[in-house]
């Protein structure tokens, strides 16, 4: 008699969700990923750069089976430099410099594609919008209800475990913590990636390399009065930049943290950048098409991250600001630890597995959330 596999439904197909799919399938689980978008985010209009720490690199390499694939899709970040720039003089002074940083830089969509393409094609259910879930009386199973967006068909999926990988505005988490409110950080992040392929000798690129001489191996944090920027190079001749702006909390619609911006907003942002930053950085911002604006939220650390046979990972478990290049790495490690706990305890001891996952991750992620503020 063939033993039936344990089954998990993962809601959310971002980095947390696709990492969780790898971790659980590696442990022998059957997995279904529900994702409301229509396809993998190739050339994502809002994707930007991410930095992978050594632990995340090792885990991704193990899931891919060929660590060189990750090496080929990323650039080394061997240096982290924090510097301060005077808005009047535009002169920069190095504050700290770590030459044993050992991160790697990737484009978000490239990293997602690498992980997604290494999974069986039938794991993902695209254009499926999560609606609700119900837990059986004996806590042995959970039924997930979703809508196929293309035709409004309602489907139901039975499984042993529901994984909330649906981001900082998690609908699943709201079922258990309806009064939880996210904390607006006080600032937003303008960001985008500039593609300079074929333009390596342009004055803009020569200028930025002169102003930031370690681009290609360094993650730059530049501080000024009430604001800061992030700059690094990512593969395929691209520059990833972020400009943080202190401002009142803007009004956003729905659960997205990405705002639609107007030409007037972009022009105002550029004018503000000209007051604060060196001309070489401002030119990069000006030449980047369609920059977008992220509203930055976090929340006080949660007291628990699982309920019966529902568990949260990534931003659903610990909404975090982007400082310290932590959020993506936290999601990847969440997925790996969850997978190892499930593999160790088995579906027959699901509660013990989730308790161990929570006991390992909650103290660490709580500290990281607070440190990132």
Description:
The longest helix has 22 residues, at 350-371. It contains ten helices and 20 strands. It has two domains: 7-38 and 126-181 and 299-371, FAD/NAD(P)-binding domain, CATH 3.50.50.60; 77-105 and 183-298, 2-Layer Sandwich (D-Amino Acid Oxidase, Chain A, domain 2), CATH 3.30.9.60. The strands form four sheets. The protein has an eight-stranded mixed β-sheet, covered by helices on one side. With 373 residues, it is α+β, with helices and mostly antiparallel strands. The N and C termini lie far apart (53 Å). The mean pLDDT is 94. Helices cover 32% and strands 31% of the residues. The relative contact order is 0.17.
Give start-end ranges of low-pLDDT stretches. Answer: none
Number of domains: 2
Q: Could you tell me the CATH topology label of the largest domain.
A: FAD/NAD(P)-binding domain
Roughly how much helix do the residues carry, as a percent range?
Answer: 25-40%
Largest sheet: 8 strands, mixed
Radius of gyration: 21 Å
- The CATH class of the largest domain turns out to be Alpha Beta
- Mean pLDDT over all positions: 94
Cα(first) to Cα(last) distance is: 53 Å
Shape: globular
Domain FAD-binding: 6-366
Pfam families: FAD_binding_3
GO molecular function: FAD binding
